[in-house]
Structure formats: C-alpha cells, structure tokens
Specification:
Layout: H1 2-29, H2 33-46, H3 51-63, H4 67-80, H5 85-99, H6 104-124, H7 129-141, H8 150-163, H9 165-178, H10 182-196, H11 199-212, H12 216-227
Length: 228
C-alpha cells in the first residue's frame, strides 16, 4: 500500500517535469531564452541532477552573457559527466569570457583553470577543434612572463592542420595577424579560402585586406568573386 501511495504521489510530478521540459525546449528552439529559462529552472527544482536541463540552462546563460552563472552550470555538468569533452570546453569558455570583463590581474588568475579545461577537452576528445582554437588564443594573448608562447600557439595550429586543413591555415593566419605578419597571413588565408570557399574563410581574408592591409581593391574584388 505504501509503495502504491508513493507511485501515485511521484508519477504526476514526473509527468509534470516531462511536459514542462518539452515546453521549455520549444521555447529555447524558438530563441525565447528568458521564457525558457524560467521553465527550465522550475524543472531543475524537481530534477536537480538532470543533465539535459542543466545543459540548456548553461547555454541560455551563455546567450545572456551571464558568464559566472554559465560557468556554474557547466562546472556541475563536468562533475556529473566527467567524460564529456564539450562540458570542459564550455566551462573553460565561460571562464575565458568572464576574464575579459574583470581586471587584468584577476583574469591572469583564471588562466590556469581555463587551460586545464581546454586541455582536458582534448584528452577526452582528441579531435576537439574548438578547444585547440581556444588554447591558441590563450597563448597569443598571454604576456610571455605569464606563459604566453607563439611556439605553443603554433603547436596547436599544427594539430588543427592534421584534423582540418582549413582550420590549420586559418589558425596560422590568425597567428600571423597577431604578430602583424600580414603578407604571411594573406598566404594562409588564401589557402584556407581555396579549400573551404566558405563565408568564414571569405570573411577572414576580406577583413585582412580591408582592415590590416588597407587594400580596398583586393577586398572589393574578393567580395565580387565570392558573391558571384
């Protein structure tokens, strides 16, 4: 009798959670993030360890640029699912975005945990491309006395080249732009665009011509050819 009573008590709660989760999911996919957040938070109260609900809330807070809250959600996720590379990557991503909002001294104190998160993502998923891009940016942006290193950035760029030639050329071009080696960057971005022929590869080369090389003729010709 006691088991039957518990069944009748908890089944309606489960059904409520499911229906509200589906409602929140529809709101999320409709990009109604604030509304979805309220419903997901209600679901989380009844199912505090539900991975999918926490993940949606993490994504919503990222859309809202609430990096501290986002980091909390993804930290919880990597504890619940310690073999999921993306949770480590997204946790590190939230920390990186938060670091851009705080003082330089505080940001430097966050670097170690960022690097560990991105490196762990690569260990869990050796083909993880975004984590390598993130590490390239860290090694470029950090002053040398705090661990910044062009050679380490190039190391991850070379790894990207093995996984994706387009990302390899784009990342090497990014390194060249950072150090104002614009002629070398042009060669790498041209190679990336020849392979990828995508909006991303076009934009990188176009921005280089327009903003760095100040060559409006090349920028215009590239745009005309890409849009033809």
């Amino acid at each position: 009798m006691k088991k039957l009573l518990l069944f009748f008590l908890f089944v309606p709660i489960f059904i409520w959670s499911q229906s509200n989760f589906e409602k929140a999911e529809k709101l999320y996919h409709a990009k109604k993030y604030d509304e979805a957040q309220v419903v997901f938070e209600g679901v989380l109260k009844s199912k505090p360890l539900d991975v999918k609900t926490i993940e949606y809330l993490g994504e919503i807070t990222a859309h809202q640029k609430s990096w501290v809250k986002g980091a909390e959600y993804f930290k919880k996720l990597k504890e619940l699912k310690p073999t999921e590379a993306d949770y480590f990557y997204k946790y590190g991503g939230c920390l990186a975005m938060r670091a851009m909002e705080v003082s330089r001294l505080k940001a430097l104190g966050m670097v170690g945990e960022m690097k560990e998160s991105f490196e762990k993502a690569i260990v869990l998923d050796p083909k993880h491309i975004p984590a390598r891009w993130a590490l390239i940016e860290i090694y470029l942006q950090l002053p040398g006395i705090f661990g910044g290193s062009e050679s380490k950035a190039i190391l991850y760029s070379n790894q990207l080249a093995q996984l994706s030639p387009v990302d390899g050329y784009l990342s090497r071009g990014r390194i060249d732009v950072y150090f104002k080696r614009y002629a070398a960057a042009e060669k790498n971005f041209i190679k990336a665009h020849e392979i990828g022929k995508s909006k991303t590869t076009f934009q990188k080369l176009y921005n280089l011509y327009l903003n760095n090389l100040k060559d409006t003729k090349k920028a215009r010709e590239l745009k005309q050819k890409f849009e033809a």
